[in-house]
Amino acid sequence: REVLDHREVSDRLRFARRRGSDDGESIVRQVERLHALSPADPNVASFISRQDARHARWEDAYVATSPRWRLRANLPWARVVDLLEQLDRLYAQVEASCPVADLLRNPDAPLDVLFFARPDQFQKHLAEVHPGMGWVPPFFDAGENVTHAYDLGGDVATTTEEMLLHEATHHILHARLGTAEPTAGRPHFWVSE
Fold first, then answer.
1. 100 CB neighbour count, 10 Å cutoff
2. Residue 64: phi, psi to the nearest 5?
3. Distance separating alpha carbons of residues 87 and 173, to the nearest angstrom
4. 122-137 pLDDT, tens digit each
5. How far is it, in rounded angstroms, from Cα 175 to Cα 104?
């Protein structure tokens, strides 16, 4: 990551304000660089707070990418980065645990994850893309090749991260070993669960 000193932060903040751009990608990069600085700096903390508020609606969610994942989430940027890093570590662990996967297909594009801040946002999205589907926990959709997840909140036994990583493991195995067969017919189904 590129780390900026405090003088550069002030210059970039002035530039971003002057430019007034709605270019989400450049704002995401700015937030990532600024987040590496001390949050005690009022300019940095204020900028990050405003960007997090701006990206709190699902329609305006952050999109963070790594070589293996594309994560769309309407969470604070620090949490988005943390989840993306956890997904990257998971992918590396799965590859290290299953060396046979190196002999099979390797996804050309990052794997997509949609992560909602609240269950009601998740359910609204599902009603739009899967009409008639009732309440469901986070899941990997092999047909869309997308992991759908949401923040489970603090009152459940399974943590949000455990559920996300469980579903992302399905996603990785499908991407590396998947076939056109129904889920239960895939040779790796028993490993996946």
1. 9
2. -115, 140
3. 13
4. 999 988 888 888 788 8
5. 10
